[in-house]
Amino acid sequence: MKKSYAVLAGIFLWQLHTYAQAPETGKTRTPQPTQDRPNRPVMPMPGRLYGKLLDAQTGKPVPYASVTLLKQRDSSLVTGMLTKANGDFSLEGLAFGTYIMRINFMGYNSVQKKVTITGQSIEQDLGNIKLQQNVKLLQGVEVTGQKSAFTMGIDKKIFNVDRNLTSAGGTATDVLKSVPSVNVDLDGNVTVRNAAPTIFVDGKPSTLTLDQIPADAIESVELVTNPSAKYDAEGMSGILNIVLKKNRKAGFNGVVQAGIGNNNKYNGGGNISIRQGKFNVFANYNINANQSWGEGTTNRSNFGGKGADTSYLLQQSNSESKPLFQFGRFGVDYTIDNRNTISLSQNIVAGDFKNTEDLLSTFSNKAHRITRLSDRATTNDFNFRNYTTQLGFRHTFAKPEREWTADINYNTTNSGRDGSYVTQAKNAAGQALGQSLLQQNTSAGSTTFVTVQTDYTTPIGKKGKLETGVKTTLRRFSSSYDVYDKDTLSNHFIYNNQLSNNYKYNEEIYAGYANFANTMGNFGYQAGLRIEQYVYAGEIPGKATYKPTKATPGFFPSLFLSQKLKKDQELQLNYSRRVNRPNFFQLIPYRDYSDPQNQREGNPNLKPEYTNSLEFSYVKNWKTSNLLASVYFRNTNNMISTISTPIGADTLLTQFINANRSNSYGAELTMKNQVLKGWDLTTNVNLYQTDMKVNANGETFDNNGFSWMAKIISETKLPAGFTLQVNATYQAPTIALPASGGGRGPGGGGFMMIPTSAQGTIKGFSTVDMAVRKDFGKKKATSLTLSLSDVFNTREYELNQATPAFAQDYVRKRESRIVKLNFSYRFGKFDTALFKKKKASGGNDQPMGDPMQSF
Question: What does the pLDDT read at residue 592?
């Protein structure tokens, strides 16, 4: 352990020492092609400048005026056009660099603008440009920034998935494993700074799990650790937003890919986009099959009570999963004019699974002598279909930074399951006792998720900005779970009323927010307030009805203060209040008997947990590196956790409860730099202390401890077009806390579920992933990627629990060392007149020069 501390500390301090001495720079410089980077594919640039020409006196549009763009360096022509009848112009496909824009028309003075494009702001509205006589040259407009594999800022971190080699051919789970600050356990449960974030897809709620989203369909991942009032208040540790691909390059372009892996794993698919004139059409499809195995052991000592003897339980499980996912997406953007755009997209996701598990339970007495055994075989066939429709409208104004958007998101999922349990009781010698017991189950469920929102942003004064918006979220959920026991005498199946269950619930959230930001010199501030009204109602037909919760508004303020210092440094202090509401599986008082020795039950009396987050951050930028250092504190009231209680001689019942309190505080350091030319390194270290107190069943449990997590992501450009990426993660031992995505509903939803509890400690683990890519062919558009996950096969989960009533060690391992070979081919042509014939020079949108490039 001491060696691990020393190695990680040494790497981080070496990075900091090396780049603290780097020469200062006031501006981000665009990387120029060099001999050490000969293998990067030539990509068409998506930069776009647009605006409208107006007569300064009459305010009427100026049609057919000449708009040209020249390189500042040598005044060579890049592109140009004549304005349309309504005065609109749009210049697309612009590479990073500095340009001079010239506007000329007979009877008006010429206008000249200096424009710098570096990629962060892909599109810029230059507003209404007024032409008149005897005017001074308009002031220059600059767009600053640079896209890279990992963009780091105080309020947001953006991880660009295309640069992540280790997740090629995988899922969103594999992508998040490579994102700094994020931890993903074996079940896909996600934590950020040891707490659960809210996960969005394209900024909206979704019923999809991480394993259902292919990595090849993801553009980027945005991590907001302390969101402002503009964002949903849900989530203890912020927001993770998964942004799906939607290409906006002019012309046509796309990618096809395919991959294979050991143990019957394969993936394939592609995407294509076509943009011409007012339309941008895009589509992608991916298929992914990742067969995997799992194994686990539970070793429990039951100390008994009131004179009962100590007994022992050993459970050994082996499981296999055969999932098949298909992901399809298509959509269109229609640009009415330069300032009005309508977008429509449709996602279709299908999943089919076949899961099997064999669980052997061995029961022993206080002398450790086996008294009996139970062998249970489980089979589940599960399928789902998910449909998401998104409709959006965006209107920008001539005044910079003024914008109005409106969005509707409709998401629905239908699922079904057929399963069976075959249980065979055995004596101490392993001989069958009587006939096996057969139990069959079927389930069906549906979820509808609707969000409607509108946002408006407008500048206030010289440097102020006001953001306002309202949002409505509606969710309808229903599920039926029917269990049948086979009668050995009649050979018929009999309905089991005790284990069967039907339920449904409605969830409604109504929200509004206002956010104001301003700067005074180098000092900036942002203050906001979000108000959310939450209504929940549930029903178990024929058994119980849970009336709608009292519609009491919740107030969620946020405050951000920032101070820019010399030499590209900045300090920021943030505060926000957030909420984590219990989901239906935590609320429903249904008991899950799928594992008779480990039963689970919801709690209808659960309360939402409220978190106050405080964060102080420091950012320093050098020429080729930057550092983000943060210290944070979280106070959570009514934290949702679980408690395990013995019932009977060898059975544990796990229930959800509200903890009395939970405090978490720590420090996080993230450093991203270029160690040498062609070698980029990102290091992330999170050190934290967690204290939790729970009162349950007349007992008090204090669970507290210090822990830390570290990630290193290394990318190296090698000769002959090779790129090597290595991702290493170490998670030190930590107390067990609930994570997002956990819990299965009645009838199971998986197998070998990881328990979470206020009573346990999770053992530390480490893992290393590696991948190498070779780019070749014309324009380096073809790539082969060979990846190996969990190189040393060390990724597993172990939970140790000790109470006066029982002691338990729970160990779980899933297939994690996986070899994959992925092929991809990029194609396309950057062409602003893809479907148009060349027009004469008098046409009103004829490109000047030839910006077309082959991809």
Answer: 80
